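Researcher: Let's continue the batch. This sequence belongs to DNA-directed RNA polymerase, and it's 75 residues. Same format as the previous ones, please.
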Amino acid sequence: MIQPRIDTLLEQVDSNYAAVLVSAKRARQINSYFHNLGEGTFDEFPPPMVKSASKNYLTIALEEIAQGKITYHTR
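Model: Same format as before. Here are the structure tokens for DNA-directed RNA polymerase:
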């Protein structure tokens, strides 16, 4: 089961499609952050903004969205 639930995510984003796009992009940023940790380059990739028991980057991104830590805008 996916945590957090989709109804919690939809309170923060406009649609399921937006939730997928935002969470996928943020998960890639978190992945890059952890892969660049040893190199000392932190300027491009911000660290995770929530404490999570999960090591899955997508789950961390979804938790950030559910807690309102991620904002986005459409063109």
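Researcher: Any comment?
Model: The two ends are 32 Å apart (CA to CA).
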